């Protein structure tokens, strides 16, 4: 499928997959595709950073390859590994069948049959549908040596496997990196990328997202939910709810057949939007009532 020809087309095509994209984000997505640059998305938890990679792959008809980062992730796990168990079985089988031809066996053991391709290598393989979307998710969870390795991998899109040689991507993948900013990612890596901070959506956009993700929710209740969550985010709490929590909460309220928010319903279901006991204790009761009043005072469209 063709790349979008304009920023508006990015917005409409992402919308057709259920992703509500603000114009500034659509602009960097458009530029990343047009210039072939990796896109670095930083922002609060649950604001749609991971989801945009999925939506983009879907709308472009490309494969999505995800590299989930974690502490201790190293280059070999991200690129390739040898299948030791299968290699051992092959050695045993060769031994059982008589004296093996050592050289041929060694060549076999370090050939494509025993290679386990990890996300970075998979993303460099040719694909008839076009270069895949490579999502490097939650980069802030890895350490600096891995970042340095990525910096190199992202600049030339080739990897060298000593036993097999160098593999180069025929067409660079579309790269999206995300971070929750639990630590700063190195400037050198950021410089390679187009950068965008994914903020909490405003009232209208969050309402739009909610209506897309939780269809069947009455308009008044949707407005109350979004109004309440937006008001909650202005409070001094430890962990503010993301869009994911808004959607979860709406689904809980739907399951409970709630048609109108009340302080009691809010107190009973706060666990869907707040995940820290201190925050829950702080908001429960009179605070919830006050925020609900604030939410009800949100302007209703004419
Ligand atoms: N703009 C949006 N349009 C549609 N759905 C959205 C949007 N933003 C968030 N969502 C919904 O919120 C959920 C959480 O989004 P996602 O997992 O992408 O957040 P994230 O920013 O990657 O969070 P985390 O930092 O916790 O990984 C998604 O499953 C999606 O349904
Ligand atoms: Mg994510």
TrEMBL record:
Top-level taxon in the UniProt lineage: Bacteria
InterPro entries: AAA+_ATPase, ATPase_dyneun-rel_AAA, CbbQ/NirQ/NorQ/GpvN, P-loop_NTPase
SMART domains noted in UniProt: AAA
Location of the AAA+ ATPase domain: 35-213
Any one GO molecular-function label of the UniProt entry: ATP binding
Protein name: MoxR-like ATPase
Organism, as annotated: Salipiger marinus
């Amino acid at each position: 499928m063709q790349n979008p020809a304009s920023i508006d087309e990015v917005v409409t095509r992402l919308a057709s997959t259920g992703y509500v994209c603000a114009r500034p984000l659509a602009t960097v997505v458009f530029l990343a595709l047009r210039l072939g640059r990796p896109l670095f998305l930083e922002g609060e938890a649950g604001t749609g950073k991971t989801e945009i990679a999925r939506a983009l792959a879907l709308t472009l008809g490309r494969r999505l390859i995800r590299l989930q980062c974690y502490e201790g992730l190293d280059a070999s796990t991200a690129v390739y590994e040898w299948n030791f168990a299968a290699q051992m079985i092959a050695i045993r089988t060769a031994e059982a069948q008589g004296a093996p031809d050592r050289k041929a066996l060694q060549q076999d053991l370090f050939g494509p049959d025993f290679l386990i391709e990890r996300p970075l290598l998979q993303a460099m393989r040719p694909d008839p549908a076009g270069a895949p979307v490579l999502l490097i998710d939650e980069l802030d969870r890895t350490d600096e040596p891995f970042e340095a390795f990525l910096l190199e991998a992202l600049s030339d899109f080739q990897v060298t496997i000593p036993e097999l040689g160098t593999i180069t991507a025929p067409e660079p993948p579309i790269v999206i990196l995300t971070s929750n900013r639990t630590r700063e990612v190195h400037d050198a890596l950021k410089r390679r990328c187009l950068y965008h901070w994914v903020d909490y959506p405003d009232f209208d956009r969050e309402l739009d997202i909610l209506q897309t993700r939780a269809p069947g929710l009455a308009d008044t209740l949707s407005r109350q939910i979004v109004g309440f969550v937006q008001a909650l985010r202005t409070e001094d709490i430890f962990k503010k709810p993301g869009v994911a929590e808004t959607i979860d909460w709406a689904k809980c309220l739907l399951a409970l057949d709630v048609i109108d928010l009340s302080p009691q319903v809010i107190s009973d279901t706060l666990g869907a939007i707040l995940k820290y006991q201190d925050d829950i204790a702080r908001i429960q009761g009179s605070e919830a009532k006050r925020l609900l009043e604030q939410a009800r005072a949100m302007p209703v469209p004419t």
